[in-house]
Design goal:
Blueprint (H helix, E strand, L loop, with lengths): L2 E11 L12 E10 L2 E7 L8 E4 L4 E4 L1 E3 L11 H8 L9 H10 L2 H17 L2 E4 L1 E2 L6 H12 L5 E6 L10 H16 L5 E6 L6 H13 L3 E6 L7 H7 L4 E4 L5 H10 L2 E4 L1 H7 L6 H6 L4 E3 L13 H12 L3 H8 L1 H6 L16 E4 L6 H4 L6 E5 L1
Parallel strand pairs: 1-4, 1-5, 6-7, 8-9, 9-10, 10-11, 11-12, 12-13, 13-14
Antiparallel strand pairs: 1-2, 2-3, 5-15, 15-16
The structure holds N-(iminomethyl)-L-glutamic acid (NIG) and fe (iii) ion (FE).
Fe (iii) ion (FE) binds next to loops.
Length: about 375
Amino acid sequence: MTSLLLTGIAELVTNDPTHDGTPLGLLHDAAVVVEGRRIAWVGPRHAAPDADAARDLGGPAVLPGFVDSHSHLVFNGDRAEEFAARMAGESYAAGGIRTTVAATRAASDEQLYANVARLVAEMRRQGTTTVEIKSGYGLNVLDEARSLAIAREFTEETTFLGAHVVPPEFADDPAGYVELVSGRMLEAAAPHARWIDVFCERGAFDEDQARTILAAGQAAGLGGRLHANQLGLGPGVRLGCELGLTAVDHCTYLDDADVAALADSGTVATLLPGVEFSTRSPYPDARALLDAGVTVALASDCNPGSCYTSSMPLCVALAVREMRMTPAEAVWAATAGGARALARDDVGVLAPGHRAHLTVLDAPSYLHLAYRPGVPLVAEVIA
Ligand code: NIG
Ligand code: FE
């Protein structure tokens, strides 16, 4: 296997605290050796070993590729009019999901594939190297299974979200829909999925329904995650912690018991500040979570309704400006935090044995991700 020595790195975010005693594990004038798909060595330039080839990056900051642990990319059409209505004063309601369900069911496989490819490429240009993709706009056996099969073409991190909302044809029989999701739909989805997710919220699925669906998913070998406490206080976060789920996502409305449950359980709280931005909602209290010792991840939630951004740099900037996270906390949450939220120990950290996923900035420091919002700072992605 040939090795490549990368030098000319003014600042390297490793997320390996052994370098500087902080979570970000910063190195200055650093070097990285890549062997095949993995990192072989990380350290100061002056101590770098020889390699088969060398490349001087010319002095930028480099960080692990972003790990976007929450997105809904398999859909057709958009909901720009709904966004405009919201900005004119309407509030966000989960019901808009049904508009996208109709458009997605009507789309060909090729159309859906092309849309995912377009958005994954957009993410990549903004520094994302690992992405989780959910189904959830099919909501019948065939369309959920094909959504996941298409998502699998792009990532290992696929999530079955048949329990997004109750589709119109089951409006009078939500119990029948829960049975379908936990039965035949799950059977068709599971071969293409690693995770199962439920939108546990008023207007979507309640606590008992979420328990039933998550238990069926776990029995089928899928890991559990939840959309929880997005639109108001509710049982979702505590349920996720009680069940020991890897992550609960949104966490917009939390009371003290929710924060304590997250801290005690070790469940990752995934915050999605693009949603609050795009729905003009209050931002989650990231400081309360961090100060309580909760592991926080940041993700885009890219979807055509509540948040149509694919940009992790935007999420970092929002987390810093609007959620009072420090730039270091936000960058960690968007990389190592995302990896934790997906139970991955091979991404999100630049250390020997990990995947060689590096995002090269057109900036001398990671601080610029929050300091220069809206500027395309990703110069190159090495993956
Ligand atoms: O994560 N909350 C539920 N699902 C998505 C929104 C989906 C949509 O509006 O189409 C979310 O925000
Ligand atoms: Fe979501």
